Amino acid sequence: MSKLRTTLAAAVLGAAVLAPAVPAQAAGGTPEAQVNTFFREYRRAVLDTKDKSPAEVRAEYLTAELNRELDEWAREHDADPVFRAQNVPLDWSTRYEGSGGGRATIVLTERWGGGAAQDVWYSVGLDTLRISGLEDPPGR
Question: CA-to-CA distance for 32 and 76, rounded, in angstroms?
Answer without folding.
Answer: 28
